[in-house]
């Protein structure tokens, strides 16, 4: 990453594969970015409602209803 640009300070990664979560933690830690990881969308939604994130990386391979609901709900929380 280009260090001259401001990098996000707080990232949430939601994926059901532990290897993906571990890789995300290592990647973001190396860039000095705080990374929280969760393995289910319900926990992700709870965190989105209670904390502020610069980026949310969401596995889109969850069931369609779960992912759509999470995306809609998190978007509505921004209003």
Description:
With 79 residues, the chain is of the alpha/beta class. It contains three helices and three strands. It has helices at residues 18-30, 41-50, 64-77; strands at residues 10-14, 34-38, 55-58. A three-stranded parallel sheet has the order 2-1-3, with helices on both faces. Strand 1 (10-14), helix 1 (18-30) and strand 2 form a beta-alpha-beta unit. The longest helix is centred in the C-terminal third of the chain and has 14 residues, at 64-77. The radius of gyration is 13 Å and the shape is globular. It starts with 9 loop residues before the first strand and ends with a helix.
Give the overall pLDDT as a whole number: 79
Q: In percent, how helical is the residue content?
A: 40-55%
| Major β-sheet profile | 3 strands, parallel
Round the Cα radius of gyration to an integer and report it: 13 Å
Structural class: alpha/beta
Please indicate the percent range of residues in DSSP E strands (runs of 2 or more): 15-25%
Write the layout of secondary structure elements.
Blueprint: E1 10-14, H1 18-30, E2 34-38, H2 41-50, E3 55-58, H3 64-77
Parallel strand pairs: 1-2, 1-3
């Amino acid at each position: 990453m280009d260090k001259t640009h401001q990098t996000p300070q707080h990232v949430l990664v939601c994926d059901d594969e532990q290897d993906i979560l571990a890789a995300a933690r290592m990647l973001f830690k190396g860039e000095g970015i705080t990374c929280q990881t969760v393995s289910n969308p319900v926990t992700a939604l709870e965190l989105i409602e209670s904390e502020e994130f610069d980026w949310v990386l969401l596995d889109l391979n969850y069931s369609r209803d779960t992912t759509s609901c999470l995306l809609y709900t998190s978007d509505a929380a921004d209003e």
